[in-house]
Amino acid sequence: MKKIALIGSGGSGKSTLARQLGEELKIEVHHLDALFWKPNWVGVSKDEQRKVQEELVGKDSWIIDGNYGGTMEIRLHAADTIIFLDISRFTCLFRAIKRSIKYRNRTRPDMGEGCDEKLDIEFLKWIWHYPNNKRPHILTNLKQLSDTKQIFILKSPKEVRCFTENVLGNTKII
């Protein structure tokens, strides 16, 4: 595991797991949200997203956390390991709401500077519809890559804990 792509719904625990993996494996972590959102929630262009990701995946090792479906193939094809956090929408919604309270009027460590935590109806809808709108396409892509990549599909916080304990020898809990 030297090139790890972490994907999943908002609130699934991608950033937390990415930080744990980075610490344990001594690999630099890149949070796409921190790279693709400028102050006051101004997004970067798709061309810039592609350029940044192509530079990142050219490195010897990396952990990249984020979805960005329009450019996901860059990470998935370059990764040796893909971790899909396929966590229930209820858990993801709960975590997103909890996170918005924890970081109210502040910028999360995995976000772009000047992007204070916010929770809006569009994001909540995105999380709610993720299992129907995004998950099937991701599973299809993962099946196509399964012969050449190490793929982990973790379906619950308990499975994530078991992954960190068994694969990494780590007993931290997300």
Would you kindly provide a brief summary of this structure?
This protein has 174 residues and is an alpha/beta fold. Helices cover 48% and strands 16% of the residues.
List strands and helices in order, with pairings.
Blueprint: E1 3-8, H1 14-25, E2 29-31, H2 32-36, E3 37-38, E4 42-43, H3 46-57, E5 62-65, H4 72-78, E6 81-85, H5 89-102, H6 121-133, H7 135-145, E7 150-154, H8 157-166
Parallel strand pairs: 1-5, 1-6, 2-5, 6-7
Antiparallel strand pairs: 3-4
What does this structure look like?
This protein has helices at 14-25, 32-36, 46-57, 72-78, 89-102, 121-133, 135-145, 157-166, and strands spanning 3-8, 29-31, 37-38, 42-43, 62-65, 81-85, 150-154. The protein has 174 residues and is α/β, with parallel strands linked by helices. The protein is built from eight helices and seven strands, in the order βαβαββαβαβαααβα. The two termini are 20 Å apart. The chain is 48% helix and 16% strand. It has a five-stranded parallel sheet with strand order 2-5-1-6-7, with helices on both faces. Strands 3-4 form a two-stranded antiparallel ribbon.
CATH topology name, in short, is: Rossmann fold
Q: Tell me, what's the shape?
A: globular
Q: How many structural domains does the protein architecture include?
A: 1
What is the top-level CATH class? Alpha Beta
> Order of strands side by side in the largest beta sheet?
2-5-1-6-7
Biggest beta sheet attributes: 5 strands, parallel
CATH superfamily assignment? Answer: P-loop containing nucleotide triphosphate hydrolases
Distance between the first and last residues' Cα: 20 Å
The beta-strand count equals 7
Compute the CA-based radius of gyration. Answer: 15 Å
Q: What's the total helix number?
A: 8
